[in-house]
Amino acid sequence: MRRYLVGGAVRDRLLRRPVAERDWVVTGATPEEMIALGYRPVGKDFPVFLHPQTQEEHALARTERKNGRGYRGFTIHTDPGVTLEDDLIRRDLTVNAMAEDDDGTLIDPHGGRVDLEARVLRHVSAAFAEDPVRVLRIARFHSRYASLGFRIADETMALMRQMVDSGEVDHLTAERVWKETERALMQPQPSIYFTTLRECGALKRLMPEVDALFGVPQPPKHHPEIDTGVHTMLTIDHAASIEAPLTVRVAALCHDFGKALTPEHLLPSHYGHEQSGVPLVEAFCTRLKVPNDCRELALQVCREHLLVHQARELTPGTLMQLLERLDALRRPQRFEEFLTACDCDARGRTGLENRDYPQPNYLRAARRRIALVEPASVTADGYLGAAIGVELRNRRLKVLKELRETPAA
User: Fold this and answer.
1) End of a domain among 110, 137, 166?
2) With 70 as the cut, is the pLDDT of residue 275 above it?
3) Is 187 part of a structural domain of the chain?
4) How many Cβ atoms from other residues are within 10 Å of residue 218's Cβ?
5) Domain boundary, last residue among 82, 110, 138
6) Which residues have C-beta within 8 Å of that of residue 238, sequence separation ≥ 6?
7) Count of structural domains within the chain
8) Hey, what long-range contacts does 275-282 have (CB within 8 A, 24 or more apart)?
């Protein structure tokens, strides 16, 4: 029995980046021998075990044979005769197909270190095309390492296009698409994930709502970048730059879906795109099984973001209705996430990244003022029953009117 450190731990050490987790491949052992040594089995599709002390994953070396469509269409084979080289050749990228033995000796049969130094993401073998998840994974790796100068090898991009054209990516499950997309959204430059998928044709198949935004013009006065798809990419990258949570990043991705439906004769204006985008956000989140908290915020931002941009012009009544729809008093954290997403929209524009955008603070002030008008103060003045709600609302409208009349700072 021998074990080897493999994959991301080797890659990131050579890149002098922090190693998040360490995975191992074990050769010359059976599942029974692993269990006898105290390893705990956890693998569902193939033998994976947790080390009794470190809890790090140790997988038995394996080979795969394609026997169906999609990423589940494989027969897995493990036995003590499967070598490390047999295991490494089935991996996706050369930079992920390196290993180290217990002495730290690098085992690199596919030139991964050379590709690391050249900043190239290249597939290991033709077997890359058998697993459609690899299209998503390489796009995600590209988003993670683009800032270091990495690019996708031409022959690998050509292979990705073939996988799309053959229909292989159509067999990806919603759960797997979302898992990779979620991880990509949390990268420092998530736009690279989506533009990479667009370059190989996968974005149109998997996320047509996002793909449809590219090429849709907007008024240059408000959007110097003009293209709605480019604006969306700038918006999610800004969300990443401020380390916004996943909910905000999903909302940033989805906020302008309705602009793809604007009739051509109305372009570059997009009147009513907020409401027309709601069904598209619903469809996107339902199809990819996006978590409910992300879905909820994305729908709110899609519906209401234009009102935030117009906040100073809103009447007290309209402002009150907006705060009520956002449930701003009872859900302050969600209200903050909503304002953050709208701020990302305002700054995700070429040359306007550092613009003055006071609207979120104006809405925060509005929330603070109505929060100070409490039901107890109304009942203390003798109001009863339904009259309490009427008077409470009138008093809150009054403080919003006073806020509106306050000169902007």
Assistant:
1) 110
2) yes
3) no
4) 23
5) 110
6) 252, 344, 347, 348, 353
7) 2
8) 275/303, 277/302, 278/302, 278/303, 280/209, 280/254, 281/209, 281/254, 281/257
Q: Is residue 123 part of a domain?
A: no
At residue 382, φ and ψ (nearest 5 deg) are 95, 5
Q: Would the CA dihedral through 292, 183, 180, 279 be positive or negative? A: positive
CA distance linking residue 300 with residue 295, whole number of Å: 9
- Which pair of structure tokens corresponds to residue 264? 């051509």
Contact in structure between 130 and 74 (CB atoms under 8 Å): yes
Question: Distance (Å, rounded) from C-alpha 135 to C-alpha 92?
Answer: 10
Q: How many CB atoms lie within 10 A of CB 305?
A: 22
Q: 90 with 82: CB under 8 angstroms?
A: no
Lowest mean pLDDT among 22-31, 64-73, 132-141, 281-290: 64-73
Task: Please give the residue range of the domain that contains residue 83.
Answer: 1-110
Q: Is 129 part of a structural domain of the chain?
A: no
94 within domain boundaries = yes
pTM of the model: 0.89
Q: What is the DSSP letter of 266?
A: G
Distance CA(125)–CA(29), nearest Å, equals: 26
The rounded distance, in Å, linking the Cα atoms of 279 and 258 is 9
Q: What is the CATH number of the domain that holds 34?
A: 3.30.460.10
**Contact assessment for residue 90 and residue 78, using Cβ atoms and an 8 Å cutoff:** no
What type of residue is 277?
Answer: G
| C-alpha–C-alpha distance, residues 377 and 395, integer Å | 10
